[in-house]
Structure formats: structure tokens, C-alpha cells
UniProtKB/TrEMBL annotation:
One of its GO terms (molecular function) is flavin adenine dinucleotide binding. Its cofactor is FAD. The lineage of its organism: Bacteria, Bacillati, Bacillota, Bacilli, Lactobacillales. Keywords: FAD, Flavoprotein. Belongs to the ETF alpha-subunit/FixB family. It comes from the Bacteria. This is Electron transfer flavoprotein subunit alpha/FixB family protein. Residues 4-180 form the Electron transfer flavoprotein alpha/beta-subunit N-terminal domain. FAD binds at residues 238-242, 255-262, 276.
């Protein structure tokens, strides 16, 4: 039996349940038993888990990474899991290293794949700025990993988990005080978009020039790491290992070379169109359709055609 604990993020419930697939892959040929840890969950009607450990206390500050780390440590000491998996969201990236230090475990961050063979359990992640993929053999326990949303996709989640109430005693109170909050006015999360128009370093025009095309195609704008680093686009729309993992029906890549770092941000894309002056750009070999030419000119002509 291989026991895995998944931290359920109340803001990303569906993405958290996708980690069940990662847990099952990590178990290999062993029986996979998946526990979820939910802290003040607004909705406990989750499916796919074997057990749901429920921590309910209105006084808890669930967005304090130190408080959540304390809870993870107590739950782990009680159940002795073989692995712990967290989402690599902004909050998950604060919790994961704290929990790893507390449990004296190694942490493999931002994994993109899992393999189990005669060499053992291997977690795969990009290395050297995304130029290579590294297989990291995990031979100590617990195995800890963080995963971008949408890297894994759990299927047919029908199992009803057994509820396990977990009572906390003498938990150190949070010292974080919320002074003010405001609503994020950003557009649709690119992870939810069915159509993405994505610009790379090879797209010479301004990002704003893509908005008309995006509107015509009922899509959203995205960008590569290079464009974000050039401060031509916000990080919220960055696709890639250091950005967001996306699974649109259509991905229109404009002037994107196709480094491993970027490709790892594309999962289960149904149709990929690549527009690039470099016919040998790596992304072209993954595309359903390749247009060899200037991306800005392509956008101008396609927008004009759609307007007709």
C-alpha cells in the first residue's frame, strides 16, 4: 500500500483533485490510497479520494503558510504518508518548502511527470532554465512534490471519500492580520480559456494589437516567458513551467520558438497553430498547422479576414 496526502486548496478544488492522478502514478504497481487534507473547506462534496481529513476551526487563518505547515506536520505524524503532493500555486509554493523542512524531506518543485520503473520512483522537472528535463530518483520518505495546476488530469472521479475529522490542540495562532483586501479585476484565467492567442519574442508588434483578434476568436491573450521578461505582458498570462499550464482547444502560437520551459506549459492542447519565421523552430514539430512567416503580418491579415 502506498499512501499519499494531497493538500486541498479551497480556491482550486478541481485542480487539487487532479493530483489524484499524480498520486496513483507515484504508487506504481502498489495499491494507491489517497488522502485529502481539507482545512475549513466550504464544500466537502469531493469525489475521487479514499479519505478526506477535515480540519474545521473558524479561528484558523487558512492562508497563513505557517499555520498550514503545522497542520500538515501533525496530520503526517499521525498517519505516516509515503508521499505529499501540493499544488504549485502562489500559496502552495509558500507551504511546500516549509513542510519539507519540517518533515526533513526533499522537495521536487514544479514537476511535469512521474515515472516508476526498476530504477525507482522518479519525478521529472525542467532544469537549467528549461533547457533539459531532469529525472530525480526519490529513495527517501516522504516523497514531496509540488505540481502546476492542469499538469495532471484525474478521470472519472466517482469514489465517495470516508470523512475523518481531525481535532487540533495547542496550535500556535496566526500572527497575520488582514488589513485590507480588493477584488482582482484581471480577465479570465488563461487556464480556463478554450482559445489562446499567445505571443512570443518573435512577435514584434504590441500585445494590445492582438486584442481585436482575440475578441474575434472568443479567445484570451497569453505570452511566453521572454515577452513577460521584456515587460510587454503581465505575468498572469505567462504560459510555461514558470508561468501557467494550459489545456485549450486551440493554441495560436505567434513567434514562439518552443523551449522545453514553454512546451511543458502545454498539456492536452487539441489544436496548435504555430506562426514563425524559423521553419525549424521546435514548436513547429508539435503543431497541427505551421505558418512560415512574420507573426505580426499574419495577425494583421487574419484579423482583416475575420472582419470580412
Amino acid at each position: 500500500m502506498f499512501k499519499t496526502l494531497i493538500l486541498i486548496d479551497s480556491e482550486f478544488m478541481d485542480y487539487s483533485l487532479d493530483l489524484i492522478e499524480a498520486a496513483d502514478r507515484l504508487a506504481g504497481e502498489e495499491e494507491s490510497v489517497v488522502y485529502g487534507l481539507g482545512i475549513n473547506l466550504p464544500d466537502k462534496a469531493l469525489k475521487g479520494l479514499d479519505y478526506l481529513i477535515c480540519v474545521d476551526d473558524p479561528a484558523l487563518q487558512v492562508k497563513d503558510s505557517r499555520v498550514v505547515t503545522d497542520i500538515i506536520e501533525r496530520v503526517y505524524r499521525n498517519y505516516q504518508f509515503d508521499s505529499l503532493i501540493l499544488l504549485a500555486t502562489d500559496f502552495g509554493r509558500m507551504v511546500a518548502p516549509r513542510a519539507a523542512m519540517r518533515l526533513k524531506a526533499g522537495l521536487v518543485a514544479d514537476i511535469t511527470g512521474i515515472e516508476v520503473d526498476r530504477k525507482g520512483r522518479q519525478l521529472i522537472r525542467p532544469a537549467f532554465s528549461g533547457n533539459i528535463l531532469a529525472n530525480i530518483i526519490c529513495d527517501s520518505e516522504p516523497i514531496m512534490a509540488s505540481v502546476h495546476p492542469k499538469v495532471f488530469h484525474a478521470q472519472t472521479l466517482t469514489k465517495e471519500p470516508e470523512m475523518i475529522p481531525f481535532t487540533l490542540e495547542n496550535l500556535k495562532a496566526s500572527t497575520i492580520e488582514i488589513l485590507d483586501s480588493s477584488e482582482n479585476k484581471t480577465a479570465i484565467d488563461i487556464r480556463e480559456a478554450d482559445v489562446l492567442i499567445s505571443a512570443g519574442a518573435g512577435y514584434s508588434a504590441e500585445m494590445a494589437s492582438l486584442q481585436e483578434l482575440a475578441d474575434k476568436m472568443d479567445g484570451s491573450l497569453a505570452a511566453s516567458k521572454a515577452v513577460v521578461e521584456q515587460q510587454r505582458a503581465p505575468r498572469e498570462i505567462q504560459v510555461g513551467q514558470s508561468g501557467k499550464t494550459v489545456s485549450p482547444d486551440l493554441y495560436l502560437a505567434l513567434g514562439i520558438y518552443g523551449s522545453i520551459q514553454h512546451v511543458e506549459g502545454l498539456k492536452n492542447v487539441k489544436d496548435l497553430i504555430s506562426v514563425n519565421t524559423d521553419q525549424k523552430a521546435p514548436l513547429n514539430y508539435l503543431a497541427n498547422l505551421v505558418v512560415v512567416g512574420d507573426a505580426a503580418e499574419f495577425v494583421h491579415k487574419l484579423t482583416a479576414r475575420l472582419n470580412q
